[in-house]
Amino acid sequence: MVDTEERDLVARQLDELHAKYRTWGQDQVVSYYPEDAPEDERHHFGLAGTNVDGTQWRSGDCSVKFPLHSVSKVFTYGLALEDNGAAETLRRVGVEPSGDPFNSITFDEAHHRPHNPMINAGALVAANLVAGKDVDEKVDRILERYRVYSGNPELAVDQRILRAQLRSNDRNLGLCYIMRSLGMITGDIDEVVETYLSACSITVTAADLSVMGATLANGGVNPLTGERAIGREHVRDVISVMMTCGMYDAAGQWANEVGIPAKSGVSGDIVFVLPRYFGFGVYSPGLDVHGNSVRGVGLCRELSETFGLHVFADPADSPFGRVAQPAPTP
Amino acid sequence: MVDTEERDLVARQLDELHAKYRTWGQDQVVSYYPEDAPEDERHHFGLAGTNVDGTQWRSGDCSVKFPLHSVSKVFTYGLALEDNGAAETLRRVGVEPSGDPFNSITFDEAHHRPHNPMINAGALVAANLVAGKDVDEKVDRILERYRVYSGNPELAVDQRILRAQLRSNDRNLGLCYIMRSLGMITGDIDEVVETYLSACSITVTAADLSVMGATLANGGVNPLTGERAIGREHVRDVISVMMTCGMYDAAGQWANEVGIPAKSGVSGDIVFVLPRYFGFGVYSPGLDVHGNSVRGVGLCRELSETFGLHVFADPADSPFGRVAQPAPTP
Amino acid sequence: MVDTEERDLVARQLDELHAKYRTWGQDQVVSYYPEDAPEDERHHFGLAGTNVDGTQWRSGDCSVKFPLHSVSKVFTYGLALEDNGAAETLRRVGVEPSGDPFNSITFDEAHHRPHNPMINAGALVAANLVAGKDVDEKVDRILERYRVYSGNPELAVDQRILRAQLRSNDRNLGLCYIMRSLGMITGDIDEVVETYLSACSITVTAADLSVMGATLANGGVNPLTGERAIGREHVRDVISVMMTCGMYDAAGQWANEVGIPAKSGVSGDIVFVLPRYFGFGVYSPGLDVHGNSVRGVGLCRELSETFGLHVFADPADSPFGRVAQPAPTP
Amino acid sequence: MVDTEERDLVARQLDELHAKYRTWGQDQVVSYYPEDAPEDERHHFGLAGTNVDGTQWRSGDCSVKFPLHSVSKVFTYGLALEDNGAAETLRRVGVEPSGDPFNSITFDEAHHRPHNPMINAGALVAANLVAGKDVDEKVDRILERYRVYSGNPELAVDQRILRAQLRSNDRNLGLCYIMRSLGMITGDIDEVVETYLSACSITVTAADLSVMGATLANGGVNPLTGERAIGREHVRDVISVMMTCGMYDAAGQWANEVGIPAKSGVSGDIVFVLPRYFGFGVYSPGLDVHGNSVRGVGLCRELSETFGLHVFADPADSPFGRVAQPAPTP
């Protein structure tokens, strides 16, 4: 258990970080999504953390709802692993970073599959792999599982957002037709795309997202409810692919500098996961050129630095240093 | 401290793994390097581990010397970071996996630099970045530092191997001339190549290599001698790039399935590092199509599985589970 | 005018070539299209030539109908030029060979357009550029124009073939959705694809095809009817792109070895055009790995060699040698 | 024979074109080569044409010497064909346009050779293919042959230019080392590069260059001296590759818009060849972004337009129209 003093110390530090990046955002935030969002929604900024022991921290707008967008790729990939096993899933979608943008139309030619499940092509294959006889069953299955991850039984698809996505959807349809022509996906394309976009259109809060991350950090079991969201043998595969492919074409630099498995979405949301310790959810709509939340990225970097969270950090930099004694034998 | 019982248990398990993969190698080992190596040298197989508390394990041929080859890229990159700082080093060589083979002639066009220091182009730039007014000073500096990493003051460049490398060297010369034409390296090309190949030709044992890895695991301080080999602020950068780029074009799959930062060389050597815990050195000359040691890769996979070493493993799979309580606050 | 003696000599030589390649086909022909074609249709082999003075030669199955498939790309590109002008057409579709297969999903990124109108992506853009308020008007316009090219008022779309094409159409749909997402095409995608596939499904004979080629050779005027099929300022653009991009990924080698502007289709049809002199149509269903008719390619090569038709041939090799004196001033 | 009236008419038209582009150059010419050239040398502008019947036209600075640079690639490729035959030459260097810049380090992977002899990699292979036991013999052979092409027995390598080239030569050395590592070239690399750069450093005048082009137009026989410079069976291969690959990454657009086989060099020189009719040499040092002479390109375009020289032009646009009757049978 985190003791009271520690909990309060962390809370103060997170509030300070939040305050710092709120200001910083004023002139750094360069683009907004969607472009017609009301002015006041553009300045939302929430930061929430959940420890695997259940401790939670919240700074800023942690009750504002936003669609998961590409952050959903993480959890849908987990479902694909569960419903098909690791070997079959790997046969259908790779785990190599591609260095390409999220909507790239290149494939892993040698293995006849999308490069990884964090780019659109791979996420569409993962949606195709979710069990269910039609789009309704698949979306129900996704929703049910996301509710276990978050412990929030009221998660739902925002139908207005889904419809808007379906109207502006040429790239995903194009990817699906190309992939079906290559034998990478099967079945009805409109259903594949609707499954994928439904997951993208599920709305959560930064607090929900931090619990979803903490469930991965906790080996697949929601630390608040004790319910299992994903088989423990699949957790490391999901986290690995966040580490190597999660931050689009800046994945290598992210692994190097921040060193925390993470995934971002065009809502301006980021989930990040420190295995065995906690999950964090950030929400702030301004995006950088890579499509990552400007404030979110800045805050994650500093959080990693301040708390020594880099997974390959020197023990002396890290709170792990205090507890990881004696060092375990292999 | 690892207690006696644990130490002996681990020793027995490592011996069993070593015995299993020695047999397995008979029909799996598909290529040898160099082709004219004596028959008996081809079957060498050593496995050594060093814990950050100084405990060591050795199975098989742990006293046989072999040249580091590409494994040297890890430690020379560390020197480049020390001698130039992280920012300047990143300006000159990236940290993104390229998905290309080790001797690829592609570059990160957008940033005008090699993709990463684990492929030849990037390793040549790293050699160019080591401080020293000429090749002799640079090689002396490398040797001195490698001796601190290993705690072995007798490490030396094998001149016969170096000369053989210099004779069969068109690809590296070509890369250097191209890079100089692009402004990616400066100075005398023969000196850059000789610096790089001298580091590749330093001979070590599997035991030496495990200590070098343990020094990284221990935040840059050799756990046997207490000497610092690399500034602690650079350790995580070195380990990150092993994780994302260390195993050539199979880096993503390695991160996913094995989940331990590692680097291989064409001698059939592999170093792998579990931060805060230990380093391992493996030596077995048969190579797979990616240029990685066949037995070494098989053994690493099983070691990761058996001991739950994947950096993103579920705590219940892992010896960390026993000690990592309570979970630290961020 | 070709005199009687010459005409008969050429007729004999063409018959000999036809006979030679009919035999050669028996073991060379490696694939058939479509796979369910009746056995006897697979051995059709027609060769027809039309001189700009109206002389015609026919060897073999010159009255058998086949769908134009990709050969239609040539004539639809001509319509795009007429309906939009050369500058606007070039803005929308390039003229650079891509070295890629016909169904490639790569684009000319620098100019934000398909590489050229002889690959599917570019042919779809050309179909999109044909004047007409809907698919019916566009297809009527295409048909009307192809009838002028061929002098055959009965040319029609084979609806059975069109429907089969529409059922197996993922790649073209994928290309269109991707291109619309990139702003390369506009409007209804099903209509773009149906326009393109309707042109592909127009059936002709080898004799018709030779007249269509002769119309291009004759500066755009059908040599049998005297009707103009395409503005003379666009003829050279159409022929140039046949020369540099017509034979898929073997275009450079074709320009080098055969040296006659040509275009092939998966029916096993080839049109080739010697500007100012004649057009030829060949039909033989076996395809090589590039998707070109096996017999057709063999016959074209030998025809070029025998008659010295290479556009860059030495005058001494060529029938031009006899007439092209004195050499004109520039 | 060109009659006197025609000859004078053409002379007047060429003078007018020359005058027009001299003025146009003032603000269009954007870069100069070499950068330290004397101010007055930068404005040189010569245009010379030679008909296959020996008629010559000269406008402007037709007696100024300049190094051939990449224009030499055309004639050295001819020598490679002669000394090795077409099949062996094709095995070693392709004929496909690459769409890449002249100094690209990409190769035709499928065939394990440079894409074509008009980019540096391919030109170095061609130099490697010229007969001769060492660099002196090879350069003597090249010089001897270039003298036959031009009919100028005084052509020589400019040693000052050669030495400057050898000092700034990293890219070519890099390409050679890479190609030797891939088995694409053999032997001493310094000799390959010196052979290639010696050919580049041969100095000619615009008048010489027009005769060299006319020799190709005339089937390989110098129209002034009657001497054969290249076997007639190789002429069309040389001209084809000029057409498809001669103008760097703008080759397709050049073939489309200008339609005359041509090759440019960084001196600001261009040779172009209308088979069976004439060769032209242009010299004007300002270069566009593709590395082609600004005035030279403008002038070639207009010359093609004015005189209807496009090889695929409508007969009605062309002086061919006047003489090419009756149309020959194939």
Number of helical segments with 4 or more residues of chain A: 12
> Could you state the order of secondary-structure elements of chain A as H and E?
HEEEHHHEHHHEHHHEEEHH
Average pLDDT metric of chain A: 88
Structural class of chain A: alpha+beta
Instruction: Report the count of strand segments of chain A.
Output: 8
Number of domains as seen in the coordinates of chain A: 2
At CATH level 3, the topology of the largest domain in chain A is Beta-lactamase
Distance between the termini of chain A: 25 Å
Which CATH architecture of the largest domain in chain A is right?
3-Layer(aba) Sandwich
Subunit arrangement of the protein: homotetramer
Helix content of chain A: 40-55%
Biggest protein-protein contact in the assembly: A-B, 66 and 67 residues
EC number (chains A, B, C, D): 3.5.1.2
Family (chains A, B, C, D): Belongs to the glutaminase family.
Organism (chains A, B, C, D): Actinomycetospora lemnae
Catalytic activity (chains A, B, C, D): L-glutamine + H2O = L-glutamate + NH4(+)
